[in-house]
Amino acid sequence: MTIAITGATGQLGRLAVEGLKTRVEPARLRALARTPAKAADLGIPVHEADYDRPETLAAALSGVDTLLLISSSEVGRRAEQHRHAIEAARSAGVRHVVYTSLLHADTSALSLAGEHRDTERMLKDSGLNWTILRNGWYTENYMGAVAGALAGGALVGSAGQGRIASAARADYAEAAAVVLTSAGHEGQTYELAGDTAYTLDELAAEISRQTGRTIPYRNLPQAGYAAILADHGLPPDLARAIAGWDVDASQGALFDDGRRLSALIGRPTTPLSVSVAAALQA
């Protein structure tokens, strides 16, 4: 059985590959990458695969039994790119596709959810066996704000008192590796999130505890937060999107208490304190 991983050189992809290497022989794995040279250090076979060049996908998937379809990073183009991958998988005789979707994708208010819903629908209509991993927020998404909070003396955002059930990227990668190498997951949709949800007030308190400084959380209107992000160099469209995701978080979009992720990986998800400590050491 050969397992292929799309986006193998990305942050989640690299972690998934490392997790899989502890479970199966590296020769049974196949990294799919737009630029194969970037995957040379993964220690597994590499094939060129470009979402926008379907002929490369067909060749890369030849002889593959199971595909980890890590969602594309190109927001706005994901559905089309995923369609190319799913069609190539079906043509190549892939038996099972595991897709990394979004927490509560079927009902989520997040602007990211639509393309994930479309991809889930395509998978279910494809005739392939499928498993959907609805990944919650990565804790790393907020750890990027730690340095700025220390520099500015406050953590800022628009999430209000919304509870965020994030988990470390490594936790989600481990879940993918478990699903890819164990039985009983076909036809399942898993809502994956961290064990312990927190507010941005609580994140600020943890930063304060670990640094010995008083770092408050300042909740801002969406436009105000977007303006600060843009002032710090983010493209205006991305700044508005991030601020909007925070507003969605204030309304519960990033919360889940099912603990399905820790059940899959057989251990508690990475505590917020551990992620903050890592961010402070970076």
Description:
- Its EC number is 1.6.5.2.
- It is an enzyme of class 1 (oxidoreductase).
- Keywords: Oxidoreductase.
- This protein is of the alpha/beta class.
- It folds into two domains: about 5-135, NAD(P)-binding Rossmann-like Domain (Rossmann fold, 3-Layer(aba) Sandwich), CATH 3.40.50; about 145-150 and about 155-165 and about 195-260 and about 265-280, UDP-galactose 4-epimerase, domain 1 (Alpha-Beta Complex).
- About 45% of the residues lie in helices and about 15% in strands.
- The protein has twelve helices and nine strands.
- The strands form two sheets. It has a seven-stranded parallel beta sheet with strand order 3-2-1-4-5-6-8, sandwiched between helices. Strands 7-9 form a two-stranded parallel sheet.
- α1 (about 10-20) crosses α7, α2 (about 55-60) packs across α3 and α8 crosses α12 (about 270-280).
- The longest helix has 15 residues, at about 80-90.
- The protein starts with a strand and ends with a helix.
- The model has no long low-confidence stretch (mean pLDDT about 95).
